[in-house]
Design goal:
Helix content is 36%, strand content 14%. The chain is of the alpha/beta class. The strands form three sheets. A five-stranded parallel sheet has the order 2-1-3-4-7. The chain has a two-stranded antiparallel sheet with strand order 5-6. Strands 8-9 form a two-stranded antiparallel ribbon. The N and C termini lie far apart (46 Å).
Length: 259
């Protein structure tokens, strides 16, 4: 039955050239104004790894969880804007875990799971294709091993993959692999670590932030999303570039432009 529902959702997809990719997420994916540079979200950089005619609509916004994204009507607005056949990447977890903020907090096994189920079924009810994205890891190490601080939320997503036949981009696993490869020191460049002497416009007093991404971090995470997306059997996968030099830079461009 669940497989038939997914097949029905995919069957209504419009041709690849007309398919739009929506992003429902938080600050890790958000599009930031130039005056916040070097803070950059992976959703902001994702179009740089896709064909020129691909349409990406980034509705990610900082501080939101599944609970607040729904409560503020942001999900309803996204559904109203999307058309049958469009794909919706759904990535939450960081703010759902905020136990001290009741407007955000959604326990993984209960409310978070219920909210994701609502998003999945409402998206399919509109003829959209929901895709779950596990939350990226923070720069969090236990000695030299990467820790997944939102593992309980990612496990809920993985369980929903099998119970609802929903596609998954396992960004937690992929980002953990990247950080493990770079190590505690090498991974600093992916996050916001700047001193006043660095004179970065967005943070003149400096910043030490192991959650949000720098330009290079956002490019690298967007590349991981693109890799995962290209592996899905969806028309939008055809819009992901086979090689993505704009996302694999080793030195900052100095802005969130593609090149």
């Amino acid at each position: 039955m669940r497989g038939a529902l997914l097949a029905a959702a995919l069957a209504v997809a419009t041709p690849a050239g007309a398919q739009t990719l929506f992003i429902a997420s938080d600050s890790t994916a958000q599009t930031y104004a130039a005056n916040r540079y070097p803070q950059t979200g992976w959703g902001q950089m994702l179009p740089c790894g896709m064909a020129a005619d691909a349409v990406v609509v980034n509705r990610a916004i900082g501080g939101r969880s599944t609970k607040s994204f729904l409560a503020e009507g942001r999900w309803d607005s996204l559904l109203a804007e999307a058309k049958p056949g469009d794909v919706v990447l759904i990535q939450f977890g960081h703010n759902d875990a905020s136990t001290g903020k009741p407007e955000r907090y959604a326990p993984a096994a209960t409310l978070y799971r219920d909210n994701l189920l609502r998003m999945i079924w409402e998206a399919r009810g509109r003829g959209l294709v929901p895709v779950l994205v596990t939350p990226p890891v923070r720069r969090s190490f236990d000695g030299t091993r990467v820790k997944a601080d939102f593992a309980a939320y990612s496990e809920v997503m993985r369980a929903l993959v099998s119970s609802t036949s929903t596609p998954l981009l396992d960004l937690e696993a992929r980002s953990a692999e990247l950080l493990q490869r770079l190590g505690p020191d090498g991974s600093r460049k992916l996050y916001l670590h700047y001193t006043p002497e660095d004179k970065v416009a967005g943070f003149p007093k400096g910043i030490d932030d192991d959650t949000h991404f720098s330009e290079l971090g956002a490019r690298a995470l967007a590349d991981l999303v693109a890799q995962e997306l290209k592996g899905l059997k969806l028309p939008i996968a055809e819009k992901v570039l086979a090689t993505r030099p704009d996302l694999t830079r080793t030195t900052p461009l100095g802005s969130a432009a593609c090149h």
